[in-house]
Amino acid sequence: MKHIIYTIAALFFFAISVNAQEDSWEKWGPTKGLKSGGFIARAGYVIGGTTPLPLPAEVRKINGFRPRGGVSLGIDGYRMFSKRWGISAGAHFFWEGFHTDADVKNYYVWLEQEGEITKGYFTGTNVTNTEMWGVTLPLLATFRMSPRWNVSAGPYLSLYFDQTFSGEVYDNSEGIGYLREDKPTGTKILMSRENPTPYPDNFPEKMQPVAVGIEIAFDWKAMKHLNVFGLLDWGMTDIWDRNFEAITFKMYPIYATLGVAYRY
Amino acid sequence: MALAAVPILLASCIPAEEPNTECDIEAVSLHLESPTDIFYHDYDTMQTVISTETDIEFTIRSYANVQSIPTTLRITEGATAYIKSADGTDVPFLNGSAVDFSNEKVQRFHIVSEDKAWSRDYTISVVHEAPSEGNLFFDFESYALDASGKYYVWDAPEVFTDGQWKNGNPGFKISKSSAKPLEYPSTPVANGGPDGSACIKLETCDTGPFGRMVNMRIASGSLFNGIFDVGNALTDALKATQFGTPYLHKPVMLRAWLSYEPGSVFQDRDGNTVEGVIDEPDVYVVFYRNEDAEGNKVQLDGNDVLSSPYIVGLGRLPHNYNADGTDQLSANPIHGLTNQWQEVTIPVEYRAELDANILQNKGYSLIIGFASSWGGAHFKGAIGSKFLIDNVQLFCE
Q: For residue B111, which residues of chain A lie inside 8 Å, CB to CB?
């Protein structure tokens, strides 16, 4: 993970030092002329999370965050209509996810398994792990800001091939961990890290197979064929089925990709 | 480095904390100059209150009298305590102020959460020790659904905590919300007794998907006196069963009508079938010293109910034991029970002479316990093991 970041940074600075003096609009595409098209193959490192927005007041403290997966490979095709304007469409295959460990207070949970229901308000530590495999199909307007900078923005559709969502609850670092059954005055059921209570394994079944959002991508022309890029996929649709009661707030996937791209 | 920044970044988005919604009395203390003139133990002046309890009773010596006692409540942070005056209005309660507990007066308290949206009502009273001859008889005719309407509860003599028998039903309710009252591990059987009246049935039950999730796959039917603290059911199930009630008489023998039918497949904690083991019921009478040398309360629970060094007298249904005294699972149980009713006598054997002075001062506690799977505390047993119990008699010296 760290290697990738360092590699990208090194490439970035290397590119600046080599090519700083000969900026030229023509160099955006190896294909002749400015009103033409081409392809960009991208490889990147994905980091982000799936989160309620804004964070609900039930979340009191983030104790830890670790990305999981973090690979994106894709190809975009673009067509320029003028010196500055064009469109771009592509397919980015990804494997992304994260792990968080958060202290929560009065967090409403509603767990259902085989017709048995446990629900109430949880206070303590909540650990979540999620991973997603899929493909994102962006359709972007692309704008050349300068001979070296290009920005693209537009909607995208993500299709998920597989998703996991697991976690567990237990007591926080102060030893506080309990569920109030049904309501804040209900039976107080203690939870501890010696015997953590896992999420039911049916959570992934309640996840939406598609997501829609907005992508914004910055490309920086580093070499004749090489771009350094950063893009953000901001999910606008809840990852959960509408009728999923276990989690009362909507959660959105927000993932950034940093990487290098090869222009044909 | 970049990743370490993420939690800090997220931390900056965390909204302000909302006020607490809970409104519990967590503990009550009464302040007296010399507590043991009134109470049996120093520790009797302080009670921790479990989340399911709303009627808090302090028991004092039968001849003692109290007037107003300075009282301290420990309540949820941010909550406000009120005491109801005679005309029913709420008066803010200040910790340490004197409360009139004379003549077993029941004082009502109202606790309001910090966010003002929730409240709970409690009663606190100081009652005299219920008179008791020592001998007890239980026919299990007096039972009713609990306040939630989900499972049955049985009346017990007032000398038992809360005047009720305790069992694991409240824990089963957490794991199997869909169960009907007669599908719980401890249930009444109308006309099921040897005399044609009601008896009690303890049955080892499957705890369903949530039970599997926390590796507590079965629930043995149980019946005992003391406290069932359902709050501990998930973290430390052995601690949930707090056995025993202080008792003024020396038990010598238990007699009961019993019948037993083991379930067909014995399983270990992980749910694996164990071949060649037949499930066994358990019955025990334990008499134990309830105070240590420093005057602290001794409370037996599932960890040491049959092994604590504070036990002075013990009677138990016959079982096979390993050489080191631990329970031996076997294909040949020796308890002698069948699926036909029979009267069984269990004598209490004493390891030491009782101290008459300690006995008179409630320094010993009595446990009467029954289970449909003797390994049930460790979630071992056979689903479907059925233990019928009726007409239990305790004889005291």
A: none
Residues 4..23 of B with a Cβ closer than 8 Å to A: which?
6-7, 10-11, 13-18, 21-23
Residue B128 carries which DSSP code? Answer: E
Three-state SS string over chain A comes to CHHHHHHHHHHHHHHHHHHCCCCCHHHHCCCCCCCCEEEEEEEEEEEEEEECCCCCCCEEEEEEEEEEEEEEEEEEEEEECCCCEEEEEEEEEEEEEEEEEEEEEEEEEEEEECCEEEEEEEEEEEEEEEEEEEEEEEEEEEEECCCCEEEEEEEEEEEEEEEEEEEEEECCCCCCCEEEECCCCCCEEECECCECEECCCCHHHHECCEEEEEEEEEEEECCCCEEEEEEEEEECCCCECCCCCCCCCCCEEEEEEEEEEEEC
A244 Cα to chain B: minimum distance (Å): 18
pTM comes to 0.84
Q: What angle do CA B244, B247, B248 make, to 5 degrees?
A: 170
Q: Does the interface predicted TM-score (ipTM) exceed 0.90?
A: no
Separation of CA A61 from chain center: 21
pLDDT value for B2: 43
- Tell me the nearest-neighbour CA distance from B16 into chain A, angstroms: 6
**Domains of chain A: which residue ranges?**
2-19+39-263
Tell whether A3 is within 8 A of chain B (Cβ).
no
Query: How does residue A223 score in pLDDT terms, banded at 50, 70 and 90?
Result: confident
Sequence-ordered list of residues with C-beta below 8 angstroms from that of B350, at least 6 positions apart, any chain: B287, B312, B313
The residue of chain B with its CA nearest to that of A51 is B10
Under an 8 A CB cutoff, do B7 and A65 touch?
yes
C-alpha distances in angstroms, B116 versus B94, B110, B120?
18, 12, 11
Helix H segments across chain B?
2-11, 169-175, 208-213, 237-240, 356-360
Boundaries of every domain in chain B: 25-128, 136-396
Whether A181 and B234 lie within 8 Å, measured CB to CB: no
Number of Cβ within 10 Å of residue B5's Cβ equals 10
Model confidence band, residue A248 (pLDDT cutoffs 50, 70, 90): confident
Q: What is the pLDDT of residue B4?
A: 45
- Return the CATH fold of B25-128: Immunoglobulin-like (2.60.40)
pLDDT number for residue B69: 96
CATH number corresponding to A2-19+39-263: 2.40.160
* Residues of chain A neighbouring B6 (CB-CB closer than 8 A): 49, 65
CA distance B244 to chain A (A): 22
d(Cα B7, Cα A56) in Å, to the nearest integer?
A: 15
What tens digit of pLDDT does each residue of A56-110 get? 899 999 999 888 889 999 999 999 888 889 999 999 999 999 999 999 999 988 8
Is the pLDDT reported for residue B153 higher than 70? Answer: yes
* Strand duo B55-60 + B119-128: pairing: parallel
Give the end-to-end CA distance of chain B in Å, rounded to a whole number: 74
Assign A27 a pLDDT band (cuts: 50, 70, 90): low
Report yes or no: B348 at the A interface, CB cutoff 8 Å.
no
CA–CA separation, A209 and A114 (whole Å): 22
The candidate with the shortest Cα–Cα distance to B389, out of B134, B143, B219, is: B143
- Whether the pLDDT of residue B131 is over 70: the answer is yes
CATH number of B136-396: 2.60.120.890
